[in-house]
Amino acid sequence: MERVTLGESGFQVSPVAFGTWQLSPRFWGKQSREDAIAAMQLAYDRGINFFDTAEAYGDGEAEKVLGEGIRDLPRQDLVIVTKVFNHFNPDGSRYPDLSPGHIAARCDLSLGRLGLETIDLYLLHMYDPLTPLADIAGALERLREQGKIRAYGVSNHNAEQCRAQRRFGQYAVVQPPYSLIDPAGETDLLPYCQAENLGVMIYSPMHKGLLTGKYTGTESFDDFRGNHPDFHGERFRDLCARVQSLKPMADGYGLTIYQLVLTATLMHPAIHAAICGIKTPDQIAEAAGVLGKTLSREDYFAVRNAVGPGSSKVADTRGSRK
Ligand SMILES: NC(=O)c1ccc[n+]([C@@H]2O[C@H](COP(=O)([O-])OP(=O)(O)OC[C@H]3O[C@@H](n4cnc5c(N)ncnc54)[C@H](OP(=O)(O)O)[C@@H]3O)[C@@H](O)[C@H]2O)c1
Known about the structure:
The chain has 322 residues and is an alpha/beta fold. It has a single domain, classed as Alpha-Beta Barrel (TIM Barrel), CATH 3.20.20.100. The protein has helices spanning 25-28, 33-45, 61-70, 100-114, 133-145, 159-168, 189-196, 233-244, 247-253, 257-266, 281-288, 297-307, and strands at residues 4-5, 12-13, 16-19, 50-52, 79-84, 86-88, 94-96, 119-124, 149-155, 171-175, 199-203, 273-277. Strand 1 (4-5) and strand 2 (12-13) form a beta hairpin. Helix 2 (33-45) packs across helix 3, helix 2 (33-45) runs parallel beside helix 11 and helix 4 (100-114) packs across helix 5. The radius of gyration is 19 Å and the shape is globular. Bound molecules: NADP nicotinamide-adenine-dinucleotide phosphate (NAP). NADP nicotinamide-adenine-dinucleotide phosphate binds at residues 19-22, 52, 125, 155-156, 175, 203-209, 212, 214, 258, 275-279, 283, 286, 322.
């Protein structure tokens, strides 16, 4: 089984991680629980031991489904990640709350939904501007002392926010957005992580499906992508054509376009793992097919040139990342 060390956290993880955001109907519409559970079990059979969720995904639903999906898998082999951030109101609205009492209470709820005694990696889902950083770190350290979490980290923080958090606590892992269409983290966050030996698990490696190679540019979306600037009009058509242009190279490697792009993404030395958003067993089987694969240096840069920033003549009006 291919395993990498997730930076200073020391976890041994598969470079492909299983992402469960797809179980959030607010973003992705209704998904099949059965397909998700079958995909989780197939993931393990195909060498994947790294699973990502958050209590925000479907307001706890994704954690419950993941708990069910991994129930019969060997616990000691798995690395389970969940995240905390929101205060949830009964009417469905939310606001940030990383105050110590709230973190402690939400952790207990996540453990219950996952059916676990310990969360391997507990992440701050976003940056809370209101809670003093020392208070947040203190709450996470208490959870670690109590054995409720093994390690902690941050998501959606820039390099300066990470640096500030690490002044107060042992944040060992970061989870930023990153794709070859939008590799913005390379400017400062990824070099910072390399210098500090932080574990890096990137999210949205397929740019929410756009890099999978299955779109022609004629599709329309009834999920959150319907409002995303990269999934509309001329820019969408242009990006789809650029992704399709990778087919001959993918064929040459015996890979699909999805696998070619994911292989290239994982070659970045700062990136330990990519969290792939999964709805069905077929999707995780395709993702798992990249384990052990690599490209030549020349082809790596050819993939970047085909789909990366500056490749498209159509303006990047990116504003909504999620
Ligand atoms: N920390 C954060 O704030 C944050 C934010 C976002 C995501 N995440 C995590 O990262 C994970 C991945 O992010 P993402 O969902 O944006 O991921 P992604 O991997 O960029 O895109 C996932 C989408 O691609 C399509 N797809 C997946 N496998 C495919 C395959 N083999 N062939 C064709 N299409 C395929 C599916 O959509 P269709 O089938 O509908 O096209 C799927 O929903 C999430 O599940 C979540 O765990 C974290």
